[in-house]
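Researcher: Structure for this, please.
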Amino acid sequence: MLLAKVVGTVVATRKDPKVDGLKMLLLRQVNPENLKEGAYVVAHDAVGAGVGEIVLYASGSSARQTEVTKDRPSDAVVMAIVDTWEIGGTQIFEKHGQEHGFAD
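Model: Predicted structure, token format:
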């Protein structure tokens, strides 16, 4: 699993029927130690995440293990919305506070 920030949505009107009805989000990877943002990823949304939220996503064959993506062509899936994380006893992020560089 990887951390990312939802930075946008992706709309594709022409697509394989197996992905019809799946919401696609544009994610930007986040380094949990220094909060620097990295590469972009398009992922299917299994949990109802929105722009500005920090999420956990899985990629590769693990992306096809959620109820939403099972047996569908998916290489990345958002499977959790992050409430908080800490490293070494120090809280780095809190969803409702968002005072660590992730303000909307």
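Researcher: Any notable elements?
Model: The two ends are 23 Å apart (CA to CA). The mean pLDDT is 89.
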